[in-house]
Every structure is written in C-alpha cells, then in structure tokens.
C-alpha cells in the first residue's frame, strides 16, 4: 500500500536520503519534519541534504552537532536559511556540544531567534566544559549595561545536560542576570545539581522567580522526558 505522502502534516523517519527525498517532494502540507539519516552509512552529508530542502515558512529548526564540530558548524544552517529565502526562525534547538562562540554568532546574526534550547550531550568532561563555556560566553560583565546584552531578543532559554553532567549554578545565575529582564520570560535548567547549588545561588534564583521569571530547575529521570519534548514542535 503506497504511503499517502500528500496527506502528511507531520513526518519522522530514519532512512536513506533517497527515500526521504521521494516522500518530501510530495508532502507539501508538512508543518513538522524530522529527517533522520545515518551519515556513516549514507554518502550524503548534512550540508548536502539541507541544500536539497527549502522551508520559506520556517518557524523552528533543531539539529544535532557532533562533538568534533568546529567554528563553521552552523554554515549549513545559514546556507539553508539563505536559499530558502525564509524569514529567520524564532526557535532554535541544538543537541550535542556546539562551540559556544558559534552559538553566540548565530544569536547575533539572527535577531528573530527568541527561543534557544540546548541539550549538551557527550562523555567525560566534554559536555561539562561546553555547557559552562556557553554560560560564560553569554554572560555580560557587571560593568556592561543590560541594554548591551548579547542576546536581547531572547524570551526563552532552555539548557539541558545529559549523562548527569553538572552545571556551575552561580554562573547560570549570572547569565540570567545578564539577559534583559524586559524580554526574558522563561528559563529552564535540566542538569545534575551536584554540590554547586549554594544558599546565595538559591536566593538569587528565587528572587528572579519572584520578579516574574518562569524558572524551572530539574534533575533526575524526569529531565529525560522534558528534554525529549524540547526537540518536538508538538508532542505526538
């Protein structure tokens, strides 16, 4: 029985690019697509695949970054936006260990991004360094006005760490303080709390919550459920 591709509004499939391509050319009513390809077994690369796709009405994009990704890791994303002739998306979700400087370059280059979700994933100390380096990159020094914040457009920021990675919670608090209070509405941190959550940090986070920030700190098994939800535009 042939697949009624023209009826699809949401799509997820792990297959070779040739199969994806055949379906996507007919699925003109899609509002969400999750394209999974094993590049170890497929001659196509992520950049080549993106060059074959267009999304002029793009709202949200999510992709995984290899631990070895360098400063140019987002070039396929930028090329995809350009050739799609799309208004830039409002939501960006990343999974892996993207270079912190590359993340900030994206935020500076695409001011329409109001929601950022990052799931730091890796082994040993890699995700710990990447997560904490990202917080340092995003944080503005105390001498700098909030009006000069690196990402003044952000209204939602979600940071998650897999494999029980802990976070420097004092640095996380400084990061939240550095973002403009008039735009930041929601912040979620899903990571191993460890021993880094001291009294001063707890008090500072609680004051932000009292000031109206929708703040969630979570660890344990429930974090996996929440992080999976971050990568879907709509739960299935």
TrEMBL record:
<protein>
    <submittedName>
        <fullName>Uncharacterized protein</fullName>
    </submittedName>
</protein>
